[in-house]
Amino acid sequence: MTIQAALNQQVELESLFDSHEEVSLDVTCVNELLRGGYDQPVLILDLDIVRQKYHRFQSAMPGITPHYAVKANPDMRVLRALKCEGCQFEIASIKELDLLLSIGVDASTIQYSNPVKPSSFIQYAAAKGVRWFVLDSEEELVKIHALVPDAKLYLRFDTSNIGSDYPLSGKFGVKPRDIDSILDAAVEMGADLCGLTFHVGSQCRNIENWKQAIETSKLIFQSMQAKGLKPELLNIGGGYPVRLTKPIPSIEYIGRVIKDALDGIGAEVRVTAEPGRYMVSDAAYFVCQVIGTATRGDERWMYLDAGIFGGLMECSQGIQYQIEVNNKSGNEVLWYVAGPSCDSVDVLSREQMLPATTIEGDLLYFPNAGAYTTVYANEFNGFPLPKVLIINE
Prior knowledge:
eight-stranded mixed β-sheet, Lyase, Ornithine Decarboxylase, Chain A, domain 1, 2 domains, TIM Barrel, 11 helices, alpha/beta
């Protein structure tokens, strides 16, 4: 095989499997922190890994400004660490805005990317200095322009989410057939509609989604210019995958694909992205405990002290973790894994392979769990919220 052929093969592999050595929280560190005992579910998160993931994303996406999606993990210590590294931010609500303002983030740099917002939230954000607001309907365009006539607006359009573990299309994103009417309405009312955005779906493993969405963006920008609107922003959203149980393309490969797709986008267009899960997932372990087991016919059931209401909501939504049982190995069997609540919807998996010898008191480790865990947690049925331990502040 020639050197060039080997390089070509490596590029192809990178499109399917991230072969880079990934920095993630080591289980040895987790065990050390738990040496003093376990009393309730806990998320253990290493801020040094968050910092490293931010810089890896920056290196893979030169010329693209990352705006961390606060929704992924709004812990103040995470936000401060990212701010100190120079990261910018994207929000979904005014509570997230207040968190950022409290640590000194410049409101004018924040992108308000929730496509449907209460009028009171729009007014509050504008009063605090937020300038960039997303929309995906003519109704939202009219609402924002009436409240904040000088707002900088960007349009979210629907795009393919095929190959994403957690599709986000459907609920948000203007359909292609409706785009022109929104552009025309913006021109007629004098609104500063100057940007576009899309989302390829969470945990996206299909790089074609980014290529297709960027090509669509170019066509919409042409239409905007023809109507007298001036494109300034392309927000390429989130969806950058992390290692869970399925092979993923490397962020470097995704970055190269995006760079090539952006060719010809126009020097006047600033490009941003909204990494959330990518920044924080690998930095943490979620630890919970087996509180009981049961045999029901041919089914083995395992009950944990945390379930979909206690931080593991995404397990019921298509996200699969590589669960580990502390200090247990050997013959694995199929378990049904459930949370502690009285709600029958509180089932994390019906096909989880774990050691047959797992019993009450064993600890279960969920690696790469720094995103969309504690932020989902509530005290349903009176069960406690997970603790959060932060290291390397």
